[in-house]
């Protein structure tokens, strides 16, 4: 589904150039659950942002379902993003002024889904995420785990082909963290492709494949046959 | 989408009540100020425009060439209107009329001194007054008839039907009421309480019939069939004076009626504006104040961008386009503008009666007028758009990756835009402070400048009814002095504050033939100099009726005539030889801003029209007034007393400047206040943003004073820059304003010092309200939570 080739991303400040991604080649198949790991500053978040069309690389190519995405302008990128991708962030990034229901509804509105259909989709996902009794609350009124569920719900409500998660458990305690990871696994089993950036090898153990990054290079790739079995 | 955006907007406004209040308050005051000023401008603009054919109606101006200068008046000869109507093609109507003048109108026991106009039937064709009773086509055709306004009719007749009843004019002429018209609105250049046929004027003043083009004593109005005729008609009317009087130095021009009120100043025969200059100032002021309020909004919105940044990031990630974000932020500012407008509306309704009284106008909101609603909607939309545009474009430009990662997004560019905006606000505020101070200085300078006589304690009354007989006037004089209410009494041909009555035809020994100086002429009774409290430079004043072939001239006249020993010189004024017996100190009759015009004073008791008396300082004023009124009432029971203080009339001369002072005072104050609101909001934000920094500094040992200096320094620098920009700007403005006055103050450093101190003080106080709180707070509170 995703074919990234010879990707290069350079950050420039006034005096220094930093190469964040250097000659990255990466393939993700449909239905895969891929973890990206590596020390701070290795470029894993940058890679995720590039995959999510939030950042533009200098060189290379990025094919998504046989479409080259790197030549797109801002509006085309936004359009592509809202149709095909969902995001989950470490710090949830819910809009404080909107209720749980409204937060989840927002991407549907941007996708111009009719009101009745929106209602149905949101209610469906709220039920699935087990947050029915929270739908009228504002984000500040929820615990971290609940907030992240809302964020996941928001990422999934448009039924995206790809979910990008940036340290989804980073701000959660271990029990809430496990809940979120189990949720992602369920999604993956239901057919959603997931790419996740994480620090935690525990979290990474839930995925099919782990990619290790260092200084902007892919240094290793490990398959993970059967989720909790030994790595090959 | 719209509903959701609206929801976010409302929740955001509610969550940040302080900002909302500051923004809305600023916008409300800005909008209200803007609307009051615009309504005032519209009111001045509406003058004389309620007549159906105002656009093709013209006032004839007389341009008189004298010693190379051209004097312009809308006073024309009586014969001009019929001549114009007959000889100039394209003229639909031409009318002559008198200028409004107060006369006594009585019905039974009810006496009123009200203002009346003599006019011929075409006057009503040109100006279509609304008739309540009577037929407009049949009026003003007789001699002893009268048309009353509704209020005048009610005052005279109460509930009776006035038609065909008779009233008395000046206790002499009996006039039949033939029609009632609606009251003349305040925004009319020609205002009167009743209208009488021109024929009656000629009957009372037979000389008018044969005067030809000698005297200019009427207002001539011309209405064209359509404006295509204007160029030709105007060219033809130019020479009308010379056609009828070979040696005339006058030319006539047509000045549009709709411009009469605002463009009444002429310089060398060219229209050079007038009130319009002031109106322009108010118009600009209106929008500047609104702009200042908008700037507040921009500043606070961008200052808070850090908070909104996350929302922008999330929305963009989820798929919002930039356009839809811009739409959302604009919606928010429109919402705020709408709320501001609602508050402004309330403020407006509360303050309008006050401004009406202050400015002596009649401003009111006409709710059924579509122009009002469209102006209102337009103003709200413009405000919302201007206020929201910069924040919308700025906020929507954030890159999601950066804001979501918590990178600092408040870049230097937005900070400097904010600084520029604050500087702009304070430049405007400082300019207004300087201008207001200079207006104050100029007004008080002119008011305290000696005017050549002692105006305090002087009263004037018209010579009317019984007092027209010289013996009665003498009786009055004796009784007044005997009563102890006044210390001396004299008479004059016009009020001390009234202009008019001037002539070019003055001859003196050694006069240059080409010299055509305009002289004021007046008639004065005995004790004139003593009563008004001026003095003689040389010679003496009138002592007895034998002085009727003698004259007194003023200093300016003596200077212009260039006489070494004026006393004893024979001059000739308007064909009368006169012997100068004295030179009087110049005193102000016309404008206190200009040098007194040369004046010749004669002594003819039948020409005087006003009694002038000096109150006895030994008696208290209200007692004295009571006694005077009582004496006048017994001697002249049929007329209202009509007593006025000279001082009040003098104050009238400052009306324009007072208006300017009042408005610049109020709206300058508002501008300063709105700017302060903005500053307060910004300080509120900065303090919040720098909480952690301040706490760390405190932990490291900074004192409250250190922190205060730190927080205030930025703002003070901005205000100082604003002052530096404002000074030359304000100097240019006040210099231009002052240059219109012959007597004017020198611009001193004082207004600038006042403005600098005031703006700095206000800024420091405003900012300190917030920064003191932060500087004194417990540092741990801010550091504990990350």
Automatic annotation (TrEMBL), chain A:
Belongs to the ABC transporter superfamily. Macrolide exporter (TC 3.A.1.122) family. PROSITE patterns: ABC_TRANSPORTER_1, ABC_TRANSPORTER_2. It comes from the Bacteria. GO terms for cellular component: membrane protein complex. Residues 2-232 form the ABC transporter domain. SMART domains: AAA. Transmembrane segments: none annotated. InterPro entries: AAA+_ATPase, ABC_transporter-like_ATP-bd, ABC_transporter-like_CS, MacB-like_ATP-bd, P-loop_NTPase. Pfam families: ABC_tran (PF00005). This is ABC transporter ATP-binding protein. It comes from Pedobacter frigoris. One of its GO terms (molecular function) is transmembrane transporter activity. Keywords: ATP-binding, Nucleotide-binding, Translocase, Transport.
TrEMBL record, chain B:
GO terms for molecular function: transmembrane transporter activity. Keywords: Cell membrane, Membrane, Transmembrane, Transmembrane helix. Residues 284-398, 667-779 form the ABC3 transporter permease C-terminal domain. The chain crosses the membrane at residues 21-43, 281-300, 329-352, 372-395, 420-440, 666-687, 715-733, 745-767. The keyword Cell wall biogenesis/degradation does not apply. Residues 20-238 form the MacB-like periplasmic core domain. The keyword Plastid does not apply. One of its GO terms (cellular component) is plasma membrane. Coiled coil: none annotated. It is a multi-pass membrane protein. It is found in: Cell membrane. Its main location: membrane. This is FtsX-like permease family protein. It comes from Pedobacter frigoris. The lineage of its organism: Bacteria, Pseudomonadati, Bacteroidota, Sphingobacteriia, Sphingobacteriales.
